[in-house]
Amino acid sequence: MVSVAAQTSTGANEVNREAARRRTFAVISHPDAGKSTLTEALALHTEAITSAGAVHGKGDRKGVISDWMEIEQDRGISITSAALRLEYNGCVLNLLDTPGHADFSEDTYRVLSAVDCAVMLLDSAKGLEPQTLKLFDVARSRGIPVITFVNKWDRPGREPLELLDEIEQRIGLRPTPLNWPVGVAGDFRGLIDRTAGNRYTKLHRTPGGATKAREEPMDAVQAAEVEGAAWEQAMEELALLEEIGADYDEESFLAGKSSPVLFGAALPNFGVSALLRALINLAPAPAARLDVTGAPRPVDAPFSGFVFKMQANMDRAHRDRMAFVRVCSGRFDRGMVLTHATTGRPFATKYAQAVRGAQRQTVDTAFPGDVIALVNAQALRVGDTLYAGPKVEFPPIPSFAPEHFAVARAVDSSRYKQFRRGIEQLDSEGVVQVLVSDVRGEQAPVLAAVGPLQFDVVTHRMEHEFRAPVELTHLDYSVARRTDAASAPVLHGLSGAEVLTRRSDGELLVLVHNKWRLKVIQRDHPDLVMEPLLAGGLVEEE
Question: Can you tell me the mean pLDDT for 247-262?
Answer without folding.
Answer: 95
